[in-house]
Amino acid sequence: MANEGPSTGPMNLKQVALRLGVHYTTVYRWVRTHQLEADRTPTGWEVTPAQLDRFQRGRSGTGPGRTRRVDWAGRLRPALECGDEVAAWRVVEDALRSGVDPEACYLDVLAGALAGLDGGGDHVDSYLASAVALRLAARLGARFRRPGRTRGSVLVAAPEGEQHALSVAILADLVRLRGVRCVELGVDVPASVVAAAAASAGRLRLVALGVNRVESATRVTTTAEALRAVVPDVPLLVGGQGVRNAQVAAALGADHWAPDLRGALAVIDEVVAAPAPRRADPAVPVDG
Ligand code: B12
Questions:
Q1: What is the pLDDT of residue 26?
Q2: How far is CA 33 from CA 26, 79, 155, 276, in A?
Q3: pLDDT in tens, 232-250
Q4: What does each C-alpha distance from 68 to 34, 58, 62, 87 come to in angstroms?
Q5: DSSP label of 68
Q6: Are 159 and 194 in contact (CB under 8 A)?
Q7: pLDDT digits (tens, 9 = 90+) for 48-99
Q8: Which CATH number applies to 149-273?
Q9: Ligand 1 atom 15: the closest Cα is on which residue?
Q10: Can you give the pLDDT at residue 247?
């Protein structure tokens, strides 16, 4: 492959392709998936020598005897922030292709990308990023859903007042991935609705509430009371940025707390593996 010698100025993507000995479309894909930094110009993209150097140093870690830890979340974040679902899905597919398993894809790549955002309700980026992230989660969920017999059911929701949807959507998908049916109610769910769904769910083993704002935490108590009236032997798990530790969770009326979604899944695995309490299940289960 022809080497053009060191370049002193910015290069267009054709020049980069020539320099790296790859096709132009490959370079374009690297730019779109944020693997290669580039600057937009009126006529296309430009890559500076420093940007190219960083990219090449990153890739050189793939050589024999060296393992390259790819920062997939870091690659995904810019695509989420600008609401580019096509580029974002490409990063997810690249991660899956390079051996990241579905659970890690949800927890390390998708949730990891969102965790790096500092915004809340007044940031455009937060809205764009979470809208695309929810679509990616749905695509992942559809790809990895497994049909067949389930091992009981788990109800997943966020209480009234809580709009942070991603963690509960991810938890619901990961519950299903384990062959456990999920009664997924989404966010901003009144205590009476959680209780009604719990009462009619078949073989219900646990209720999980995602609480991301401190202000929503008091709703956990209302929900715990409503649940106790209808399914007193079903444990309640809470977690999220609004419930800091196990003591706070217990004071709010929960039976379990976990610091993150992996911890939540460990609790769910344990509860589902234990013998089910004997109770008369409703004839028509709510399907998840
Ligand atoms: C995206 C986002 C939004 C979006 C949500 C859109 C949507 N459809 O989901 C929008 C823009 C709507 C929003 C609004 C608000 N937001 Co906001 N938001 C975020 C942001 C940037 C990312 C949240 C996210 O999805 N993360 C990805 C998920 C996967 O991670 P996670 O939710 O943190 O979950 C992890 C843990 O919390 C835990 N976990 C989560 N759920 C559960 C459940 C269980 C059972 C368990 C065990 C564990 C667990 O495990 C996960 C990791 O493994 C965070 C900042 C940040 N970087 O975290 C702020 C943040 C959560 N928001 C915040 C705030 C204050 C708000 C607003 C009040 C802002 C405002 N002034 O309007 C409103 C409130 C809306 C409401 N009523 O709920 C604060 C919350 C502070 C607090 N703890 O009280 C944060 C932390 C920002 C900040 N630094 O101040 N937000």
A1: 79
A2: 11, 7, 35, 46
A3: 999 999 999 999 999 999 9
A4: 17, 8, 6, 22
A5: -
A6: yes
A7: 999 888 887 766 544 333 445 789 999 999 999 999 999 999 999 999 888 8
A8: 3.40.50.280
A9: 121
A10: 95
Tell me, in angstroms, the distance from the centre of ligand 1 to residue 112's CA: 13
Contact criterion met (CB below 8 Å) for 91 and 73:
no
- Would you list the domain boundaries of the chain? 11-60+70-139, 149-273
Among the listed residues 39, 118, 116, 34, the one whose alpha carbon sits nearest the alpha carbon of residue 70: 34
Cα of 164 to ligand 1 centre, how many Å?
5
CA nearest neighbour of 227 among 264, 261, 183, 263: 183
Q: What are phi and psi of 32, to 5 degrees?
A: -65, -30
By the 10 Å C-beta count (0-12 exposed, 13-18 middle, 19+ buried), 4 is classed as exposed
Q: Please tell me the distance from the alpha carbon of residue 2 to that of residue 216, in angstroms, as a whole number.
A: 61
Phi-psi domain of 83 (left: phi exceeds 0; alpha: psi -120 through 50; beta: other): left
* Global pTM exceeds 0.85: no
Closest residue by Cα to atom 58, ligand 1, is 115
Alpha helix ranges (H) inside the chain: 13-20, 24-32, 49-59, 72-81, 85-97, 102-104, 111-115, 124-144, 166-177, 191-200, 217-230, 246-252, 261-273
pLDDT of residue 65: 35
Q: Which atom of ligand 1 is nearest to the CA of 161?
A: 77
Pocket test for ligand 1, best of 130, 132, 164, 257 (most atoms within 8 A of CB): 164
User: Distances from the Cα of 168 to the Cαs of 72, 106, 183, in angstroms?
Assistant: 21, 12, 11
